[in-house]
Each structure stands twice: as structure tokens, then as C-alpha cells.
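Re: folding output
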Amino acid sequence: MKAIAVSAFKAAPEVMDLPQPQLRPGTVLVRVAAAGINPFDWKLADGILDGHMPHQFPLIMGVEGAGTVMETGEGVTRFKKGDKIYGIFFHSPAGEGSYAEYAIVPEDAAINHAPTSIPLETAAGAGNAGMTGLQLLEKLGLQKGQTLLVIGATGGVGSFVVQLAALQGLQVIATVSSEEGATRMQELGAATTINYKQAPVVEQVKQAFPEGIDGLIDVISNKADFEAAVGLVKQGGAALTTAFVADKHFLQERQIHGGNFETKGTPASLAQLTQLIDKGQIKVPLDNIISPEETGGAIAQSRAARSKGKTVIKF
């Protein structure tokens, strides 16, 4: 089968011809329609979990995908042959990823039946970012009418956060880098857009919201920039970062709750996301569908933080 893999930690990803994975008890064999690209994919290939879990090489990359169940292993009850599924395929050993024509996934992984209103290729880009958006807002705990600044709004996670926050009645302030981005964020529900290329975000937000904001979700900033943005949040407000740059003491001193955030993928979160998609309440912000041969370039863009929106690899 065709797969995108690395031969060693930090090696360049290559399109390889590898054996189809063998079904094990408690797993399903999936014919992958598409795999979503996430920064964690290349971090895993660089060895971020080396010493923490078993790895196998060639290491097939990819933690997220969508496809059709071809076979079910002994003991599987949640899925049957022919089911369309999506979500997080990641499991131990690392290296049996979603960047391949076929993948095996444990039945108890964060996977669920795919939305019926969108193609599998689109669903492949929804699971990780969508669950992250849902859980970020749940953790933030803002109320209808309150203000939320989203830094990194035009990316995959940010685009879900903007939509979900607007759906909850929050006043969303979204950072953008262009008029095109501003238009897209407004269409997704942002009340205000801030073009960070025109002036520093903190300065612009202070001017527009002199009394401060109620919440902050930041998916891209370094420690200094995150702390500068936290300065915009009112006492008693909330601030979360997915970049793991928050200092809990810094937040506590300012009477702001939140901090570093990590998604906990679950079938229940996926079911909630599926319902929102199939009801037409949110759109999957898919920007690029690429071939396996284009994956190396897309990963390089992700490494350089130059990727825009969500990209999936179609198989």
C-alpha cells in the first residue's frame, strides 16, 4: 500500500510502498479516504514521544483521518464492515498512522461514525480541530454576550472556535492577516476582526475594547506574546493556550483562570461534533486537499507555521 513514512526520527517524509497492516483483536481495518495534517504529526516523527511509548519504523505518519471499515477484529462491537468513520487514529505503537491507504485503529480510540452530510475527505479534517474547539470553549466557560479574542483564528482550530463561540452567542474578536481572512472570519461568525499586519494585536484590541475582554484563546503565540494578550483579559476572566506557554502563577496573580490546554479526544466529543455538522450549524474549514506526493511540502509549511487553514491528504 502507499504510505507517507519516515525511516528514522527527524528523517524526511517519503512516499513508500509498505505492507498493509494486519488486523488485531479489538481493532478495525480502515480503507483511508483522507488524512488530516496536524503539527503533532511531524513532532511525533521527530521523536517527541521517544521513550514514552513504543515506535515502529518505517514510521507511518498521521494521527487523524476518515475512511471505511473493511474488517473488524475479534471482540469489536461498535463498528461493522462498511461503516464510515472519522477521528483520531493514533495509538501504540506509534507508526501505524493515518497517512496511508489502509490503517488499523483500536475500537476504543477517539473515533466515531462520520457525519453523513459531508464527504469523508472533509470529515478527515474535522475531528482533531473540531474536538479541540468544543473542549476549549467548554473549559473557558464564558457566557452569552461576553467577549472572546481568538489569536490564530484563521487556522483549523481557530476556525472551529470562531464558529462554535458565535453559536454560543459570544462576541468573537478574530485575528487575521488579510481582507480575505477578515471576510472569511465574519462569515463564520466573528463580530470583529483584527489585522495583525497593520498594528500589534494588543494595541488594536485595547483601543477597540478599553474596558478589556472576558476571554482569550490563543493557538499560536510564544510565551511573551501570550502574556501580553493575557493583559487584555479582565480579572476573573479566562485565557487558554494550546501552545503550552502559559505560566500558572502569572495567571493566578492576575486572577485569571485557564492556562495550557490539551485536547482529550473521545467518541462522545466526536458525536457532539457530528451532530453540529449534520445540522448545518458549523462548517468544516477545509482549505486544501493534496496528493500523497505533495505531503512533504505541506509538512514543511506546517513546520514553518506558514500553513493556512486545514489540509488533508487524499488517498
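--- second protein (sequence, then structure) ---
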Amino acid sequence: MLEDTRVPDHFVEQAGWCADLGSPFTAALLRKFAEDFDAGGPMYDLCKDWDGNPRKDALALRIAGALHHAVLTGDAPELAAAYPAAKYDWSMDDVWASAGPWLTTHIEHVRSFIQNPPQTNETRRCIALLPGFLHLADTYRMPMNLLELGASAGLNQNWDRYAYDGGTWQRVGTSDVSISTHWRGPEPAHLDTAPIIASRAACDLNPINVADQAAYLRLKSYTWPDQTERLSRLDAAASLAQRKGVRVDQADAVDWLARKLSERPQGELTIVYHSVFLVYPPREVIAQIMQMIEQAGAGASANAPLAWLCFEPESLFGGNRTSPRMQTRLKTWPDGENLLLNESDGHVTEVDSLLG
């Protein structure tokens, strides 16, 4: 057995996060991963030579995604019969009775599948970003030129078309995609403001075309199987993206953003936005992106203002480096606003609003 316990420890840690985020199924599955690794089962064979940092690489979620993908595609019918979609009173012993042998038989396929990081394109993050967009729409009253980084399938480009429900407040949308959360604190200001979107653009190193069924099922596989609301919302958001012709450029964020910032139009408010994106690039790339935005901001004018809206880890802004909390921040040029709008978890199951 490996003396290094990073892999099973990661499985157990991620299981705790899944439980906290409302997925008892995924939490139980990842605990099985840890048990099987320690017992020298297929999980040990799959992960014993993992070169990277399992926590940073989200190794547990890669493997969970591989299993869910097999369920969604019909490649593992016995496993599918034990999963939450087919059996609401699922038993993890029954699940593992199918999952373990399937992993053993398909280990090379799974080894290939987990070479790519998970992508979820979590549309719920739009409710954390919404106060920033509304504030900008009310403040500038200009057409918006939207630039999204790390956009995955581009589902969050349609943020203005979604309906929102914070419990104590609502905003009507123009689509059947509805996003809700437990909202604490001041409700967003300017809920009746109608943003004018002049253009939408986005980039990702590995964009997903939701019109491609195989690509879409891979995206869907990373959404936890017992979270039916998230799965239904993903389906609705993907359908809307197809109808609206959402497009994501396959490009390096640094090169793409440099070009877009140099071409930003006069008479429009350019908004660079992203959500849980800056956890993935190397540190030097993160610094380069942030510096690029700051430099572009220094050259902004009243006729071509620039805004930077993001939902990223607290640690990115100099906060607690071990905190799992995410923060929504907004910075604008040339007026110099720098606002902390709200705090939440990675799935935005609840929001602590700090500014109405």
C-alpha cells in the first residue's frame, strides 16, 4: 500500500464538502472510494500513480464524473439501476456492488476519462453575480459588451434571461431557467432594471458545445446525481443556449482577453466577468490576467468604461487562504469603485449579501 495518504484523505475531505453542499449520494460514494483505495481495490489501481495534487486536481470529482457518465450514456446499465435517477431510496452498498466491478473492467477507459478536469458550468453562480450586473446597468445606463473568461459551455452568458428567486425577492426572466438560493441580508438593488446587452463573447481552453450530445453528457456527468434541481436547471440552460446560439471561443484567456480589451468599443460598458475560473490557471497566469485588467482600467474613459465582476475564492483577494468561501467583487474604471457584494459557497446554495 502507498504510504502517502493524500488520495484517500482527499476523497474523505471532498465527501465532507459534498455533504455540506447537499449531495449525500456523492458524499457516500467518495467515502467508498477511500475505503476501496485503502483495501487495494480498483480505486487503488486507478489512483496509485496519480502524478498531481489530488485535491487541486479534484480527482474525486473526476472519478465520480466517470461513473455518472457511464450511467447517463447507458454504458453501465446495472450501475444505472442503482443510481438516484432510477432508485430514490438508493443504497451505496448496492451502488458499489456494481461500481466496483465496472471500474475493474473499464479501468483504462476511466483512466483516460479522468485526464480532463471537471466542468460543471454552474448556472446558480449567476445569482451571486446578478447584483453586480444590475448595479452596472443602473449606474452606467449604457449598452454592455460582455466578456466571460473560463466560460465552459457559455451558459452564464444568458444571465439576463434567467429568472431569480432569493426567497424574499424575485426577478422575472424571459426563459424557463429559474435560479433560486437562500439569500440573507439586503436584496439586490435595481431589480427592475433592464440591462441592454450589445454583445456577448466568451472563451475557454476546452469549450463545450451543448448541441453536441456526447459533449453535453460529459458536462452533465459532473453534476451530482442526486441533485435533481441542478440537473433540471442544467438541461433548461443548455436548451436555451442552443436556441440563442451561444458560442464560446476556444482560446487561451490571456491572449483572448488582450485582444478583446484592445478592441473594446466606444459608447459601451465593457464587462469582464468570470466565476470560479481563477482557481485553475498557474499563479503567474492569474497575476497576468489581473494585471491586464488593471492596466486596461487605467486607460478607461467615461465613454468607454470598464468593469471587472467576479465570483472567486476569498483567498484570491488576500483573505483566509484555507477558507472555502467565495466572494463576488466588482471593480470599475474610470470611477474607481471597488465593491464586495456578497459571499457564498461554490454552488451558491446560500448567499450572504453585503450590499443592496
